Amino acid sequence: MSSANKGLSVSLPKTLESMKSVDPDVRLMALIDLSKDLTRLTATSPATNAQTRRPGVDSYSDDYTETALTDMVLKLVNDTNAEVKNTTVTCLALMARKTKTERLTKIVDELLAGVSDKEEEKRGICTLALKQVISEMPVDMYSAGALVNKVVTNILGTVGQPDVNAQHASELLQILADIYTRFPFLIAHNSHLASSSLDSLIHVLSSARPSVRKRAIPALVALVAATPTSFDKLREAIVSGLQVGGETSRVWTTAVAGLAKGSAVAKVGGLIVEHDLIGLALKQTEDLDDSDAVEASLVALEILVLRCPTEMSPYIGALTSKALELVRYDPNYVELDDDDDVDMDDDNDDDEDDDDDFAEDGYSDDEDVSWKIRRAAAKLIASLIGTRIDLLVDFYKTIALTLISRISEREESVRLEVLNALETLLRQTATARNADLYAGGRNKRKRSEGMDEDAPEDSAISQLSAIRAQLVKALLKQVATKSLTTRPQVFNLLRQITEALGGGLDSEADAVSTAALATLKSSDSTTPALTIAVLSFLAAFFMQHPAKAYASHLNDLTDAVVGSAHDKLQRVNFEAFAAASAIAQSIRPIERGALTPMNPSLEPPVQTILSITIEVLSNTSVDATVREKALVTLGDLLVHEGDVLTTSYESALPIISTRLASENTAATAVQVIGRIAESDTCTGTEFNKWLLDIVPEVLNALRRTKRAGKVAEFTCLQDILARLGTTLPADEVQGIVRDLASLVDYPPALSILGLILANQPASRSTIDDTILPQVLELLSGLSINLASIEPIAAFFSAYVEGDIDSATRLVPLLVSNVGKLAKQGAIPDATSGGTSAYTATASCIGAIVGKSQRNLAGVVAAFQKTIRSAKATDSDVYLALLSIGEIGRTTDLSSVSGLFEKVLELFGHKSEEVRSAVAFAAGNMAVASSDRILPVLVQELSNAKDGPTRVLLLHALKEVILHTSGSKLEVLADKLWAPLFADQEALGDDLGDDGIRNVKAACIGKLTTAAPGKFLPQLQALLKSKPRDKAIVAASVRYAFIDPSSANDDVLAPLIGDFLSLLKDDNVIVRRLSLASLSAAIQNKPHLVIDRLASLQPLLYAETEIKPELQRQVQMGPFKVTEDDGLENRKAAYETMYILLGTALGKLDIATFTDRVVAAINEKVNEIRVIGLMLLLRLAQLAPSTVTVRLDDLTPAFKEIVKDIEVKDDTVRHDLERKEEMQRSALRTAVPLYKMSTATQAPAFHAFVAGLLQADKWKEYRDYEA
Questions:
Q1: How would you classify residue 1114: left for phi > 0, otherwise alpha for psi between -120 and 50, otherwise beta?
Q2: In a designed cystine with 1161, which of 604, 645, 1101, 1172 is the match (CB 3.0 to 4.6 A)?
Q3: What is the pLDDT of residues 744-790, one digit of tens each?
Q4: pLDDT, position 436
Q5: What is the three-state SS of 400-451?
Q6: At 871, is the secondary structure helix, strand, or coil?
Q7: What pLDDT band is residue 51 in, cutting at 50, 70 and 90?
Q8: Main-chain phi, psi angles of 1232, to 5 degrees
Q9: What is the structure's pLDDT at 831?
Q10: Helix H or strand E segment including 37
Q11: Secondary structure (H, E, C), 669-696
Q12: CA dist., res. 279 & res. 513, Å (int)
């Protein structure tokens, strides 16, 4: 045997001899051994290599061996044994992966000959083998073009024959679809092949048998995707085919739907606009005797609604009317009442029950296929609702009652689609309600009514409230059915009604309680989905309604819920404890921070829940995650009903301690303990003793946890210490202080220490010994966390409050502590940690002096001496100025002789850092001395000649404006306004420095909010000025939008349109600043913007587009780099879009919005891609129908993002890290989308994500939840 085939483990002569054996088992085993070898040898080289394959290169064996094996395997295609033939197909496919061109050509030729054979069995096996070979042969093989041309030409000739076998033709058309999908570049570069393919497929679609036509559609879609220009030729065939009527129209309608699903969706949209495509499709729905044609038309319309929402907008009314007509079409079932008149009269219940009996008896008519029409119509209705949230109110008026009347549909598949449409309606309503609450500032739920009393009559909530009774009654009738798919969906809908209305089922509480109770009693281990749906509904129902609404059923419901807690299925346990927690909270809710009185009659359910909770927590055989849920329920019981459970403290509290000691449940236990300690319900000596005992365990959990920030543990400890107050023993305090010594770099630890100082004065000595050195070390750190500055200052404030004169010791200590950072008196630069330590120290000194006013003079005198001293180093002067500013912000220092004058002198200091500290000090001194120091500062600004000094004075003025209270600022506004615009003329057409403009904008914006009636018109007048002024206006008005007060809204509302018109400005910077203003307005004052979104959206979306005129090539060494001046605008626009999703979904042009999200993910800039991924996931959560149909379109972009970077010699680690983070961002979006869609909805996307999750590299995302 040649050395070239040393990879083959089988002996060639023996293998060939075995394949010739008369025993089929021997032949089969020889083929199986060969297939194992081929699998191993071809797996190392993927079918799609990076380089083009050449003849004689990259094969699995030598020429002789390949030839012999190929010939023998091809002979066995005609074997009489089925298993042998099937294994032969496998071997041929594996050979195609990695064989020389001449052998692959021979394989294809032999199979093509077999495909044309008259014998059906041979034809079938050769067709199957050809399909497998096509799916495995390399796409970049040298001879791929010739082979593809040969196969396609042969197949087209076969399927075009009038007498071709239908099944055979269907299989060949499937091979064609595979070829067009796998080799699009070859098809696109062979115009003759593409043209003949299109002509043949059009012929098949117009004349072949129905089953063959159906198979031709995927091939046509794949061909158009490979050769987009072919659609122009196809356009005429589509229009004429739809006009023919009958079977041909049905097929072409299905073809249009298939094309709309693929990359030709834009061209299909153009077809809708240019031709009466929708009219032709609707015409097909008129012949109700042809149910297949009607169904095909409705399915196509559904796809067009999802894929071409913009083009379909003019037809929404007609589509809605037709769908409503057909969803009621049931010629074999006579309805006595109008569908839209949902009878609420109880006298008609008997008749309705008769209808149910009719359905339950299993009514069947094998010839009745009208259900297909009704099902397709229901799906069309769901697509309309899911894509047009802006028409939600209209849908309630036109669609809702009809859907309610169809809940009793006798055909289950139709009924489920009706329920799905209702679910979409309710989900959209909940989304709209949340947006309305946010936009209107109404964020308090009305518990008793379950809805907003002031909801507008034309709102979706009001419309849902109006039909609530009919809907609930119709749903409850279905609870009695035997369908295991309908009943869970009924309770899901009841839950969504509750969530959408924020309650609202008070009137129906008795009926829904009875239904839920009966269902739980009848469900068992064979119906977990039903049990879960009922429990999930009950949890929402209890949370959104007061206990009095269902008090008569509470005991029975509690028993049923508790019984489910014993279920063997974990998910059922989870939902049972969630419902139990909801009962505990509903029985005695916390309203405005206070508990309502406890009704004694409601105590038995509480005891029942407590018993099962303790039982589960005590049982070590129960899964840890289930015990976690039980622990949360126990916490809810103690928080809400702790005062009536005092006799159970002895059994309940130690269990919580045990759970805290376990690493598996410690995180949950910490949160539960914190909530219990914060609540006032648990009291008494036993409880306080338990809190004391639990403190060491909480500290252990604090040390043990690896979670960032340790927030839950710190919060728990603080709640415990606040509850214990002064009763905490001194030895315990000392232990806590010592434990916190190593954690002072966490801001919450400092807050806890401040609490200890306030409640335990005796702890001061321990804090001096263990904490103070740690805090000083933290302050002198090279890069102190800015989030720690405020807690450190608060710590020193609490420290001095207990010993006022300690300020005389602490201030010099702080000064000397930070002084050691300076090298030879120089202020540390960024490479040495920067100036954050000085800023933090000055803040602490300000806090200390604020609590020790009697020591103020001495401290200020010391700092004044420093800034006057010629021997003082820059770092000493820098700290002194910052400290003077911190002190001067709250204390008037104008009476300190010569202090302000000396500060002003230092504007000419040689050090830039010192000059910035001068601005800080001068500005803050003016805050507390607006009558004496501020006028001098304003005059200095007016007289400033040089630019640098003016900039510093602007920063000083910013300190004044930002730290002055609103009422006081309104008085000073006139004096401060003019100096801010004094240098605008000097700028000419130049927009000026971004930093200076931002300072001015902050000042102007704050002044505007103080006196909007005076200054907003002045800003409006500048809109017609030069770009420099418009830039200032765009940046300044943002602060008016950020202002949380609504007092100025009436003044701002009439002008907001003018200010946001800057989005149309020619200057890119002005537009970027205006985008920031729009973002602020949407986030903080959406009610002012929401009615203007129709005109603002096009401007916003325009800023997301890549503008070539803003791009330029820059030479950087040997490389040319593209600089994009529009990048910041695109980022700002996409960020604004993200905010819009949460505030104004119902007002958005969802189709265009989605297009821009897709464009973001397809960008090459990672910053834009990340925002696009966030937008896509959020949009999918709010409008799933819109996103699901686009997932396959996005699959190539996801593949590009996830693809590993090619490591080269010049690849740096940062590039690899950045790529990996981008990959993780993609996974964090793709996995939730994968879970909220199905493989039928997005096959390519599902196949891609499933493949990713199988890889070990991404296994951590298999259970990822967004």
A1: beta
A2: 1172
A3: 888 899 999 999 998 888 899 999 999 999 999 888 876 677 778 89
A4: 72
A5: HHHHHHHHHCCCHHHHHHHHHHHHHHHHHHHHHHHHHHHHHCCCCCCCCCCC
A6: coil
A7: very low
A8: -60, -35
A9: 57
A10: helix 24-43
A11: HHHHHHHHHHCCCCCCHHHHHHHHHHHH
A12: 48
DSSP conformational letter for 141: B
Q: Is 227 helix (H, G, I), strand (E, B) or coil?
A: coil
Average pLDDT over residues 1093-1107: 94
Task: Look at residue 258 and give its three-state secondary structure.
Answer: helix
DSSP category for residue 46: -
Tokens of 323: 């769908």
For 1189, the token pair is 């149909």
* DSSP 8-state secondary structure symbol assigned to residue 828: P
Q: For residue 830, what are the contacts with CB-CB under 8 A and spacing of at least 6?
A: none
- Selection from 1237, 1227, 1235, 1236 nearest residue 1259 by Cα: 1227
Query: Long-range pairs for 987-990 at CB < 8 Å and ≥24 separation?
Result: 987/1028, 988/1028, 989/1026, 989/1027, 989/1028, 990/1028
Bridge partner residues of 1111 (DSSP): 1124
Rounded Cα–Cα distance for residues 599 and 471 (Å)? 33
C-beta separation of 876 from 866 below 8 A: yes
- The per-residue pLDDT for range 501-548, each reduced to its tens digit, is 999 999 999 999 999 999 998 887 778 999 999 999 999 999 999 999
C-alpha closest to that of 1022 among 1041, 1044, 1000, 1042: 1000
Share of the chain above pLDDT 90, in %: 61
**For residue range 996-1036, what is the model confidence (pLDDT) as tens digits?**
889 999 999 999 998 898 999 999 999 988 888 899 999 99
Sequence-ordered alpha helix ranges (H) in 929-946: 933-943
CB atoms under 10 Å from CB of 871, counted, come to 7
Helices (H), 705-745: 711-724, 730-740
What is the rounded CA–CA span in Å between residue 1232 and residue 1177?
8
- E-only strand ranges, 872-1020: none
Task: Give the model's confidence band at 1121: pLDDT under 50 very low, under 70 low, under 90 confident, else very high.
Answer: confident
SS3 286: coil
Q: Which residues pair with 417 in a beta bridge?
A: none
Residue 1115 pairs with which residues in a beta bridge?
Answer: 1120
Q: What is the pLDDT of residues 970-980, one digit of tens each?
A: 888 888 998 88
